[in-house]
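Narrative of accomplishments. A recurring question from our advisory board has been how the design workflow behaves on a single, concrete structure rather than in aggregate. To address it, we present the structure tokens for one chain from the evaluation set, followed by the sequence designed for it. No filtering or post-editing was applied between the two.
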């Protein structure tokens, strides 16, 4: 199934491990860091072609050494197959 899944994820990391967390997130495919604060908060956008891949990235983010918590704050899905089916119905 083709499409796109985009999520906004807010992470809170140990401030002293912020550089390491940031480097790990930047190396993950489909992850963009939008904002980083000195107290350890990171606002990220994750873009993946399937909900399963998105869930895997979110799990990896939660399990990143130095991350205290990760919160999904937004999710958007654009499924080309569903849109095409609605048009032809």
């Amino acid at each position: 199934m083709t499409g796109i899944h985009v999520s906004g994820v807010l992470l809170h990391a140990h401030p002293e491990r912020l550089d390491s967390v940031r480097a790990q997130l930047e190396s993950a495919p489909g992850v963009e860091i939008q904002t980083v604060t000195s107290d350890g908060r990171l606002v990220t956008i994750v873009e993946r072609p399937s909900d399963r891949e998105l869930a895997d990235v979110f799990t990896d983010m939660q399990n990143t050494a130095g991350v205290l918590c990760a919160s999904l704050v937004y999710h958007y899905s654009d499924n080309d197959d569903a849109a095409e089916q609605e048009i032809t119905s």
